[in-house]
Amino acid sequence: MRIELISAVLMIILLNSACSGGTPEASINISDPWVRASGMVEMSGESGIETDADIHDQAGGMPVNTAGYMLVENVGGQPEKLLRVESDIAEAVELHLSEMADDVMKMRQVEFIEVPPNSKVELKPGGYHIMFIGLNDSLDVGDRVELKLIFENSGELAVLAEVRAP
After folding, report:
1. Where are the alpha helices (H) located in the chain, listed in sequence order?
2. Which of 26, 43, 139, 158 has its CA 20 to 30 A from that of 132?
3. What pTM does this model have?
4. How many CB atoms lie within 10 A of CB 116?
5. SS3 of 19, please?
6. Do 65 and 55 meet the contact criterion of CB atoms below 8 Å apart?
């Protein structure tokens, strides 16, 4: 009887561990997701600062890129990484970081955005952001766009972002 009880307890522990994957997953909350309206994207060459979304179609002068922002909160006890974002609003979607270098704001692509345990990372103008390259259509203030955020541990998270003026 004692061996049966120990076997039953061990079986429960093993099954519980297998069902949970053995490691706790990070918990992600997204707040205030928004995308810059495509008609609002401008170059600010006078100041020597490049905006987050400053590339224009040279032939027509129309913006072809824009950027997205949000607050990403990791309420879990494990580190998390935003690996990529998917959306059908643009030909390509990349994670970027804008930072000052030699008195000029420069933008570069990053492989991921790390969100430490019990922390928040704000994707905002002048910092981390989502770059939408080669817009498929114009984005007007008030529109809503679907984004799929892919995290290392938490998997996919669908988000509906509002299109806003900066």
Report:
1. 2-20
2. 26
3. 0.73
4. 12
5. helix
6. yes
